[in-house]
Amino acid sequence: MQSHPVKRVVSGALAATAVIAAVSFSQSSATAAPNPAPQNPPTSSEELTKYRELAGQAEKINEDLLKAKDDLAARQGELDVANGDLEKSKQAQGQATENEERFRLDVDRFADASFTSGAQLNKMSALLTGTSAQDFLDRSSALGVLANDQNKALSNLTDATAQTTAAQQQAADAQGRAQTAKDDAAKLTSDIESRKSALDSQMKELEEASGSLSDEDRAEQGDEGEEPPTDIKAPGDAAQTAVNAALGKRGSPYVWGATGPGQFDCSGLTSWAYKQAGISLPRSSRAQATFGQSVPRDQLQPGDLVFFYSPVSHVGIYIGNGQMVHAPTSGDVVKVSALQKEFSGARRPG
């Protein structure tokens, strides 16, 4: 039978072990990546499950459509720049050609003066035709001036010819860039029309599915989700402003293509929130997924953009504690949710 001192030692050791285990668990929990969770809470309604699947598909098509529009705007910007460069190159080419013609006339004039009469404009001819040493010096000085002018005319012609060639090359380059941008824009326009048609078709199917939702299903969709932390501390002013702005829109309805201030789609909410902080994000979630600095999941901070699916088709704003604020999908509202299972990356805009 153990003595009381031994019992106290054993009890103390067990207590210390428990404390160490608790501290270790607390520290690992604080640094570990947030646990993934479904975008929406599980539901027993098959109708709502089907509706959310259709809505998720529609959201992907919508984000593809927005990305195509982003690309089209970029190509149109490139076309405008190329057309501007082309116009400048044509003006430079015209001026260079005009200079080339003018300097060529100067060179031709010197050539006529030198060779048409059969006499060479040089100091030997001045010596042979002069009547005195002073006459020779005077003629030599005049011929020297003429020679300098002739060399200058030849140099001017050479430079003007080079400028004409360069302007022609620049114009050809600008013409090629303009044609490429124009062709790309035409393809993207066709792609946008195709995606818009697909979205319209998906929306029609979604509308039909909406008719089978019960009042309980609709109430579940209108729920604003989990309660956000009360002491969210973002690492910077811009991130803090964006987080506060997005949280202030809880309960606002999801609407395809909406960018606020009363309705949003997922990337519309994030772009609107960061706009309040003076930061302009790209319009689509896929384009936003390349904006700013990449952040590992275990280093997420409030204000970071969190992305889902591959290719990216959904985005929210991380608020800490494994949660985000986002506009989920059609029929739903801006809410706070746990991070989804389909996490695909994060970016820090500020």
Automatic annotation (TrEMBL):
Where composition is biased (Low complexity), the residues are 168-179
What residue stretch is flagged as signal peptide?
A: 1-32
Q: Mind telling me what this protein is named?
A: Hydrolase Nlp/P60
**A Pfam family:** NLPC_P60
Q: Which UniProt keywords apply?
A: Hydrolase, Protease, Signal, Thiol protease
The segments labelled Disordered in the record are 27-47, 168-239
According to the entry, every stretch annotated as the NlpC/P60 domain falls at 236-350
Q: Name one GO molecular function term.
A: cysteine-type peptidase activity
A Gene Ontology biological process annotation? proteolysis
Q: Where is the composition biased (Basic and acidic residues)?
A: 180-207
Record-stated family: Belongs to the peptidase C40 family.
On whether Protease is a keyword of this UniProt record, the answer is yes
Gene3D superfamilies, sorted: endopeptidase domain like (from Nostoc punctiforme)
Keyword check for Signal, yes or no.
yes
